[in-house]
Amino acid sequence: MKLILSEEQQFLKDTALSFARDKTPVTHFRGLRDASNANCWDSSIWQEMVGLGWSGILVPEEFGGSDFGIGGISVIMQELGKTLTPSPLLATAVLGVSAIKMLGTEDHKKTYLPKIVSGEITTALAIDEGHHHSPFNIEASATLSGEHWVLNGQKVFVLDGASANTILIVARTSGKSGESNGLSVFMADKDSDGLEISKISTADCRNYANISMNNLALKQDALLGAVDTAGEIVEKVLDLGRIAMAAEMLGNMEEAFEVTVNYLKERKQFGVAIGSFQALQHRAAKMFCEIELTKSAVMAAMHAADENSNELERLSSLAKFQAGETLHLVSNEAIQMHGGIGVTDEYDIGFYLKRARVAEQIFGTSEYHQARYADISGF
User: Which of 207, 225, 295, 368 would bridge with 103, disulfide CB 3.0–4.6 Å?
Assistant: First the structure.
C-alpha cells in the first residue's frame, strides 16, 4: 500500500488549504462562537463548499457527484481541521451520502443524493443512545402499523442534529439491544410530528442534539434498504465517518503543533527562547513523531476505504485510535508549553484543546477502538 496522495487528492487538499486560510481562518470560528450562531456553522460558507463540489465527493457521477472517494473528502477535512472550520460536511457529505448510497433504493438515491450535492438538504445520523459510543446497543424501536412505521425512543449526541433538515434514525425492528441483526434505518424530516430535537452545548461550540421519537409515524418508503439488515452497513458507514473524523483531528494536531513550535521560538525566559531548552525540544520531537505516525494510519485507512479492502474495519479503528491518542497528547502539550495564557480567550490555542476533547468522543474513544482493533485482530 503506497501512502501517497493521488493527483486528484493533492489538488483537493491544496484547494481546501487555500479555502480554509482565505475564507475560514480561526477568526471565522471565533466570530461564529461570539455571535452564538444557531447552526454553529455559516450557511454562506457551506454554499461555497457546495459550489466547489465538496458535498458530492462521495456521490456517484450519475447523481451529480464526483465520486472521488473517502480519500478525497478526508484531505479536505484535514485542511478544514487546521482552522477549526465548522460545517455539515462530515454529517451530510460522508455519513448521509454513504448511508443513502449503501442502503437506499434507486428512488432514494435519485431523490436525495442530487439534493445533497446541490446543498438543498443536510443530514444527521442518529444512532447512539448512551453516554458512550456503542452502535449496536439500540433500544429505539420501529414497528409497522398499517401503512406507517412508528418509532419510539431516544438518541443522544447526534452530530449536526440541531441543524440538519433530514434525520437518519437507526432503530431496532427485531432482536435485542447489543445485536447487530434486527436494525433498520429510517429517514425523517426534522419537522415531523413526534420528533423532538433538543440542541446541546459542548466545549467545542459545535452542533449536537438529543432527539426523542414519540410515536413518530413515517411512511413505508422512509425505510432505507431491507428491514432488519442495516447493522453491518451502518458499521461501514461509521467506519467512513471515523476515517474522515480522524483526518480532521490530524489537521487539528498539525496546526496546534505548528502554533506551539512558533511560540517556543518567540517566548523568552532568562533572555533566551524557551525552544532552546532541551526538555521542551524532546517533548516537541515526540509530538512530531506521533503526528507522522498518525498521518500514516489515516492514509492507510483512506486507501483501504477507497480500495474496498477487507481491512477497512481494522484500519479505520487504528486511524481513530491513533488520532485520538495523538491529538490528546498534542493539545495537552500545546497548553502546557504556552502556560496559563494558553487557556485564556486571548489565544486561539485553547480552542484546539476544546475541540480535541469532543472529537476524541465522536464515533468511539481511543479505548473503544483499541478494544475493537484487538477483537478484529483475534486477540
Answer: 225
